Amino acid sequence: MDGRADASDLELLRAHVDGDRQAFAELFHRHRDRLWAVALRTLGDREEAADALQDALLNAHRAAARFRGDSAVTTWLHRIVVNACLDRIRRRQAHPTVPLPDGNRAGDGSGTGGIEPVAPAPDHDTALVVREALAALPLEQRAALVLVDVQGYPVAEVARILGVAEGTVKSRCARGRARLAVLLGHLRPAGTSPPSARPDPPGPTGEVPGVTPGNPGLAEGVGSGSGRFRRDANQEDT
Fold this sequence. Notes:
By secondary structure, this protein is mainly α. Helices cover 50% and strands 0% of the residues.
């Protein structure tokens, strides 16, 4: 057993830059579940998510030498994964296809397609409806909601991952929740009112049903990595 298991994320990244061929693999192994969950929730399709995650890891592998060290490695990795997902969504919108919403190519609801590994929903049909509703949101709202409501990251960290102000994250989440409250209103039991657990601006704030926040713990301090996402910072949600 070597010392990689005891090394910090930053030490592993630097070791990778210095030529250690196993260091990046160890880094990915540590964070793959969280990165996979973000990709899957954002894209809503297992094959698309797998491809996006692979693209992101290749980008991170090649760009490691440019990592400045002024942010947590996990924040940097998440930013690259989110950007890879949004790039795929933009390409998909430019060249529309007809993907299966749950990414299950077998079509029978069995096997690995369907429930996510990090935050499984108890009801498969409800999970599919929720995933389709998330897919109907504008890109910026979807990315913010996946990170805040689904994965459980603090708003401050999400702001640094997305490269926007905290107020922008809160606004996108509030608007996304309002849209989901409309799209998923039929799932609410009769006679109940929408939950409003989060202190966001007034309006419907129905929590995503059938989904539990994944990994509520915070990994490390946060900061800015790649600046690619900032091109979206000034795009106001409608």
